[in-house]
Amino acid sequence: MRLDLAYDGTEFSGWARQPSRRTVCGVLEDTMSMVLREDVDLTVAGRTDAGVHASGQVAHVDLPSTVDVDALPRRLARALPADVRVFSARVMPPAFDARFTALRRHYEYRVTDAAFGAHPLRRLDTLAWPRPLDVEALNEASALLLGERDFCAFCRRREGATTIRELQRLAWQRSGDVLTAHVSADAFCHSMVRSLVGALLAVGEGRKPVAWPASLLSLSARSSEVTVAPPHGLSLVRVDYPDDADLAARALVTRNVRVAPTS
Predict the structure, then answer these.
(1) Pick from 229, 240, 178, 201: which is nearest to 52 by CA?
(2) Of 49, 104, 166, 259, whose CB is crowded by the most CB atoms within 10 A?
């Protein structure tokens, strides 16, 4: 079963279960297990860090065929806390895997350079930046980062995990005093989006040259010069999947071990 869901990450210690901490996965699994009287084990499209939001998260779970799929979102709404909601539930082919059959993930990062800071109604999902930001410089620097690269300079390493990713979109748009970074990739490594944003903000305010973030791609370890942007400006907004007939093939591609590009 595929679940489409959203959450306000402010009061969560990220997606993954952690002892003695409130997490999205923990709340969802515990609530679903109570409602369905079945042990629930969720697989998610992309684990989010503490404080990061999601408006288009996807997870899957194996459940008995006796579960009323159409009624599930309403049943869960009565039991879940107000900061997490399951919008829809639907039966999928056996090859569907929320994580391994995903084609790409789309994130947005919101930041404002207004003199007064973030609007009170958006303070929980918008970073207040104290200096003016140049959107043209941000986009010039962002364009130099696109493609399949080893992003180890922008990632927190995890044992056995690759840092090679294909960054498909990184573009900034300004609407008044709010700038939104649109970031898309086939997958992201730990803290990658927030690290990219942190490096680019240094360019946007004129503290670093346009070519600086891309120059870090030549490093073989995480850069100590990169400041990780705060989590509350980041939201996972969409996950793309192939047609049902292509799910199994996509899972095989995703599970292949990546090697660094030769050029």
Answers:
(1) 229
(2) 49
Report the C-alpha gap between 125 and 233 in whole angstroms.
5
Could you report the per-residue pLDDT of 47-100, keeping only the tens digit for each?
A: 999 999 999 999 999 999 999 999 999 999 999 999 999 999 999 999 999 999
pTM of the model: 0.94
Q: With beta carbons less than 8 A apart as the criterion, state whether 179 and 172 touch.
A: yes
| Segment 205-212 long-range contacts (CB within 8 Å, at least 24 positions apart) | 205/129, 205/131, 205/132, 205/133, 205/134, 206/134, 206/137, 210/137, 210/140, 210/141, 210/144, 211/141, 211/144, 212/141
Q: Is 28 strand, coil or helix? A: helix
Q: How large is the angle between the packed helices 192-204 and 135-143, nearest 10 degrees?
A: 130
Is 107 one of the annotated binding-site residues? yes
Sign of the Cα torsion 207, 211, 214, 216 reads negative
Residues involved in catalysis: 49
Task: DSSP for 153-185, please give it.
Answer: GGS---TT---EEEEEEEEEEEETTEEEEEEEE
Q: What are the chain's domains?
A: 2-90 (3.30.70.580), 104-242 (3.30.70.660)
